[in-house]
């Protein structure tokens, strides 16, 4: 690290210690998170980008109170089929493609995240595998993450141009401890974040299903010792974060629920909803899922891998998707979704 970088890091450390951010910035909160938010008034004037099958006002009120919504049977089977066929093509022929992949097993220490072709093929179909930003390769992935049912809800809660931050594709349950997304999936405005969890199969109780604490998006934020966002200067650990969330949710009487939704449903959750992955009860039971994180153009005007660079951008249903700057030649290489 150069002298200038060292000086910048020292300045950031001092600033964070003296003036840590302890809450979302009230001045830039999405409208629906503000204390004066009135959904009935909003709905009277709102012009949704697409017609949807659900009652938008009802879903917004549920979101405001609970920090999540389920859009029942919002996604057509054909799109899910094509997307999963693309995933299977990737896993059968990993050396043909470039995508960052993480396998959280000790045998891959010290580098658990690599290009997919650097992992043994058999390991890619096992547990603890996370395919990062598969949507950049797959046209079907882009269409799925920007489905009109999802886009309309995100447009309503953000009231700004929606952008895709990242996607994660799983075969099995993550078994991830309780967490909130905003400390890790970071934009310039941590409050400008939402996620969609799209099951590729009916979710079973023994598959390590997602769990969440209802209403926990309103709980006091955890301070990592230098504010609410985790980075290399933080003095408190992810384990302490998980312990804080479980303990505080219990103290505040936030009910813990388990997500057993069906293929075709979509869960959308708030940046601050506390959630995690349960223990896998049946080691043979998959939990195929596609997780997509979204922000706004104001909060994330760049690809997270190149914050100083203007991104190459595609638009799907009005949502901005940044091309992957690491693997430009791979963009939309899986084209089966073009027919949909």
UniProtKB/TrEMBL annotation:
Q: Does the keyword Nucleotide-binding apply?
A: no
What's a Pfam family this protein contains?
Answer: PhyH
- Record key words, sorted: Dioxygenase, Oxidoreductase
Q: Which cofactor does it need?
A: Fe(2+)
Q: Which GO terms describe its molecular function?
A: 2-oxoglutarate-dependent dioxygenase activity; iron ion binding
Superkingdom: Bacteria
Entry's PANTHER family?
Answer: ECTOINE DIOXYGENASE, PHYTANOYL-COA DIOXYGENASE DOMAIN CONTAINING 1
List the protein's name: Ectoine hydroxylase-related dioxygenase (Phytanoyl-CoA dioxygenase family)
